[in-house]
Amino acid sequence: MKKLLFQFDTDSYPSTFDTIVAYDGGADQVISFGGLTPSNITPLVEGTIFTRAPKDKKNTAIFIGGSNMIAGQELFAAVQKHFFPGFQVSVMLDSNGCNTTAAAGVAKLASSGTIAGEKAVVLAGTGPVGQRAAVLLALEGADVTITSRHMARAEQTCKEIKERFKVNITPLEAVDHNARGDAIKNANIVFATGAAGIELLRAEHWQNNNNIKMIADANATPPIGIGGSDMMDKGQDRHGKIIWGAIGFGTLKLALHQHCIAKLFEENNQVLDAEQIFTLAKAMA
User: Do 196 and 116 belong together in one domain?
Assistant: First the structure.
């Protein structure tokens, strides 16, 4: 029986990246739909749960993606509301790679040193990856701050995180290089999660900071987020800090994404969000 993955995307055009990784993760067929919302998802979900026999439902799964994580979360919840005993399929949320990218980055940091009790700053942390990285660092016991160019956005993000994950994150406005340099002065861990091609810190802002122990940068598009580091860094020691570049932990991100897809087809009741995906990442790191 073919393993069918239904790719439900909140954007108009489903992600080709997610489609390719789905095939590499073991799906026999990927059926993609774009522009989905809680209001138009019902017939698609019903089609997945009312077809195959109970023993065969594990061969059908749903992947939720798109660039907007809040929209993805709402769709993720709406899909599950249609499930009931005997009629459900496995489902995974990874809007904009938020869960797999953050989980891989934090897992690599955890494999390189101590997170619990440390002060962590997530630069440009209001996007999907930044939010999830902040959550996972907090769940590991770090005192976490996220920065944004706009305080209101940082505050709203921290509020939403608190509502979903019950962890406290500190918001901080940092509008330029110098402000972000000030933001990390007392940090032990720095995770850069800015937009592609945007440098968030220059080398002088971190190289001589003796408080910093570990750095991760999720940006693989030059100029990368952390000046003076390299996207290929795999736990590289630079100026006494352990550095993980986007490609450096990206190998784990891709392997994790593929592993999650494969796991969806093991049973019909898998629900993969940040916490579950992070558990898998730590086992693979």
Answer: yes
CA distances for 59 relative to 92, 258, 280, angstroms: 14, 16, 21
Cβ atoms of residues 167 and 161 within 8 Å = yes
Domain membership of residue 188 as a residue range: 101-249
The overall pTM is greater than 0.90 = yes
18-50: burial string, b at 16+ Cβ within 10 Å, e else: bbebbeebebeebebeeebeeeebeebbeebbe
Report whether 201 contacts 181 (CB < 8 A): yes
Are residues 228 and 165 part of one domain?
A: yes
- Cα 70 from Cα 78, distance rounded (Å): 12
- Cα distance between residue 142 and residue 121, in whole Å: 10
- Examine the domain organization and report whether 93 and 117 are in the same domain: no
User: Do 117 and 221 reside in the same domain of the chain?
Assistant: yes
Decide: helix, strand or coil at residue 211.
Answer: coil
Residue at 186: amino acid letter: N
Q: What is the pLDDT along the chain (285 residues), one digit of tens a residue?
A: 999 999 999 999 999 999 999 999 999 999 999 999 999 999 999 999 999 999 999 999 999 999 999 999 999 999 999 999 999 999 999 999 999 999 999 999 999 999 999 999 999 999 999 999 999 999 999 999 999 999 999 999 999 999 999 999 999 999 999 999 999 999 999 999 999 999 999 999 999 999 999 999 999 999 999 999 999 999 999 999 999 999 999 999 999 999 999 999 999 999 999 999 999 999 999
